[in-house]
Design a protein that fits this description.
Shape: globular
Structural class: alpha/beta
Number of strands: 28
């Protein structure tokens, strides 16, 4: 699963594969955790790719570290819980939890080795641009004095050394904190050592990397603490000092079926997460075996399996984002700002534009989230004809105006109902705060359906138009989050389709009441009741319509293909000759290119400047093409345990936009990787100058060109109108 190479002979790989007849055979399915780690390795490759600007490469290195932190908190934490509970059930790919854990650990250790080599290379290149993280031995006396003063004024007051001895039990170690173990010797006590723990106080007031005056030179805070430790432990001899860091399990969800108050339950879970079991210990390479063994034992870890050694190098590389933020244009990607969508750019009223010229397909970040989605909500808040606003909120951020506009709408007398997902992983505390603020403003806040996460991205606006009440919708693939809307590639649909509006009303009635009578949806495909069966039926239909004269075609662009039933159905379609194109960002169970089974399948992964996050499902359907977009990936949890919304895109002009979008990605030779039959990936390489541009760069240019065309069209209309007046 870990091999990445610039080229490969697919024929040789294919001929070596023996394909079982039974579609339930575990060898036909790749492992979820290992395929996700393979994605992380592709991200790591970007950090070493010299075609990327230097600080962008550093950004990818920080992303890899952040990704691994979450992987341990969520996925490794989950595997350890299964092992602790005695689960030995094999996954669809034939692995027990213990086997998965062992293979994941081996892959992570290999990736961490590449990370360290990449870091060394990047640091050397950064020095050529006068950017450096200095070690103390490289500093001048003046710089040492400056850091001593900085430590005394800004760090020393925040630190509390904690002794570890019979009178002082082992202290609590917070998740992802950076810590020091310090062995000291008291004067007059011979060779007797004592141990202390110091937590490094990284936060808003104290950065990880302390900047030296009038320079782009930094010193890591842990280095500063270590070299000023005599102020903390005066008159003691420092025997050694080592860094360590822990990762705690984030899987603390409890059974909400029997909860009296879901909000209280989530608040309780957040408190428990602080004290959740530790799943990983990271240490510096020169830590002595005694200290290492003591730490592992105190933290409840296996010293030989759960301890990850950095080899004496930096821990917590995710904090390299601080250096990535340096404003040095030549070391970053060319600046980019999303353009205004041509369809709504010149409209004085967004609802009139949707009604008269819509529907509109939004491409983020290529088109601005602020001037489209946020504008939709803003105008809904202030438009006197708007009667009600209903929406789902999975994640948002402080720089997003969504909550502000919802509060303003309530103040303006609109009926506002918001379904807030309290269980959005790592955003629970923020969502509790948003929910409280909205409730204080008189908004009807609910927390979805018991037992299901509400992951759908949908806004319903009810407006009194000239001909009665009409429903206006935004249905998206991404969260209502201004920050990620600038960094993630997503799609959205603005429409006033009557059938979709009725379906949305049904959906919100379900979400706000939890009642589950049989509901009839005309066009929307919500999960968990409808979507999975609908996708399987469409795959089966494509198989049945396929013929030599009219070959079938299925294309999915998703973040993950994990559901075994969907994977099996795609195998069945491919086996009869249906061509299947899968653009899958990370986890993918399906193995392409297997003789007699998946020879008609290609799986590619796009890794670039933006995180690919859009979901598109396409079925050729015998020429009556069908395009669907929405919030759901082809994962068991999305299809069976979440409320998702997938919607058809029916307008011919929007279908053409989606066709171009898919084709640009499928034909990428800069950011695309091809999966091989054994699950490894091979990066595509440009064959000519035109292919040097990746799909994301091309989509930026295409969005800008759409705006230029709209301006030219508008200018032409204006000239014709003026000419007509002159003739009169």
């Amino acid at each position: 699963m870990s091999e990445l190479s610039p080229s490969s002979d697919k024929t040789e790989i294919t001929e070596a594969v023996t394909v079982p007849e039974d579609l339930n055979d575990p060898s036909l399915y790749l492992n979820r955790e290992l395929t996700w780690l393979a994605f992380n390795r592709r991200v790591l490759h970007e950090a070493g790719d010299e075609r990327n600007p230097l600080l962008e490469r550093l950004k990818f290195l920080a992303i890899v570290s952040s990704n691994l932190d979450e992987f341990f908190m969520k996925r490794i934490g989950g595997l350890k819980q299964q092992i602790g509970a005695g689960v030995s059930t094999r996954t669809v790919d034939g692995r027990t939890p213990k086997e998965q854990l062992a293979e994941c650990y081996a892959e992570v250790r290999e990736q961490e080795g590449i990370q360290l080599d990449t870091l060394h290379g990047l640091m050397a290149e950064l020095r050529e641009h006068d950017i450096a993280i200095y070690r103390y031995e490289e500093l001048t006396q003046e710089q040492v004095a400056y850091l001593h003063s900085y430590f005394r004024d800004n760090i020393y007051p925040l630190i509390t050394p904690q002794a570890i001895d019979p009178a002082h039990p082992f202290p609590f170690i917070s998740n992802l904190s950076l810590n020091l173990t310090v062995q000291v010797r008291f004067p007059g006590e011979g060779n007797k050592n004592s141990l202390s723990r110091i937590k490094i106080p990284i936060g808003e007031d104290v950065p990880r990397f302390i900047r030296l005056p009038d320079s782009r030179h930094f010193v890591a805070i842990e280095d500063v603490v270590q070299h000023n430790i005599s102020l903390l432990l005066p008159e003691m001899k420092i025997v050694n000092c080592n860094q360590f860091r822990v990762t705690r399990n984030a899987n603390t969800e409890r059974d909400e079926e029997h909860a009296d108050d879901l909000l209280s339950l989530i608040e309780s879970e957040l408190r428990e997460r602080r004290f959740a079991p530790i799943v990983r210990l990271q240490i510096q390479g020169d830590m002595d075996e005694t200290t290492r063994g003591m730490l592992a034992a105190e933290l409840g870890l296996n010293e030989h399996k759960d301890v990850f050694n950095s080899g004496g190098d930096m821990l917590a590389m995710r904090e390299l984002f601080q250096l990535v933020a340096l404003v040095i244009p030549e070391l970053h990607d060319a600046p980019f700002q999303g353009v205004d969508h041509p369809g709504v750019r010149v409209a004085s009223n967004i609802f009139h534009a949707i009604r008269e010229r819509g529907p509109f397909l939004l491409h983020h970040p290529y088109e601005s989230f602020r001037s489209s989605v946020e504008r939709f909500l803003k105008e809904a808040a202030y438009d006197p004809k708007v009667r009600a606003i209903k929406m789902t909120l999975y994640r948002t951020s402080s720089d997003t105006k969504v909550v502000d506009y919802l509060v303003q709408a309530a103040k303006n007398g609109k009926q506002v109902a918001v379904v807030v997902e309290l269980k959005a992983r790592f955003d629970e505390a923020a969502n509790i705060r948003w929910a409280a603020r909205m409730e204080e403003a008189g908004i009807h806040v609910t927390y979805g359906v018991v037992g299901l996460k509400t992951h759908s991205k949908i806004v319903l606006v009810v407006r009194k138009d000239y001909n009665g009440l009409r429903r206006y919708l935004h249905i998206g693939t991404g969260n209502y989050h201004a920050g990620t809307a600038r960094l993630y590639s997503d799609l959205g649909l603005l429409t006033n389709d009557p059938d979709m509006g009725r379906d949305a009303t049904e959906l919100f009635n379900y979400l706000t009441t939890g009642y589950t009578p049989e509901r009839h949806y005309r066009k929307l495909l919500p999960a968990p009741k409808v979507l999975k069966a609908a996708l399987l039926a469409r795959i089966r239909r494509e198989r049945e319509l396929h013929s030599a004269e009219k070959p079938g075609l299925i294309q999915f662009k998703i973040n993950a293909l994990e559901d075994a039933d969907i994977t099996r159905a795609l195998y069945q379609a491919s086996r009869v000759g249906v061509h299947v194109d899968l653009i899958v960002r990370d986890t993918c169970r399906l193995r392409p290119g297997l003789p007699g089974l998946s020879e008609n399948v290609q799986v590619i992964s796009i890794v670039g400047r933006f995180l690919e996050h859009a979901r598109v499902y396409y079925f050729q359907n015998g020429g009556n093409e069908e395009y669907l977009i929405g919030s759901s990936d082809a994962m068991k949890r999305n299809l069976e345990s979440r409320v998702e919304v997938v919607a058809p895109v029916e307008a011919e002009n929007l279908r053409k936009e989606l066709r171009v979008f898919l084709d640009v990605q499928l034909n990428d030779h800069r950011n695309a990787w091809d999966m091989q039959p054994d699950g490894t990936y091979v990066q595509r390489m440009p064959r000519n100058e035109a292919e040097q541009k990746g799909c994301q760069e091309r989509l930026i240019e295409m969005a800008q060109e759409r705006v230029k065309q709209a301006k030219r069209y508008q200018m032409g209309r204006t000239r014709r109108r003026i000419a007509g007046r002159n003739l009169r």
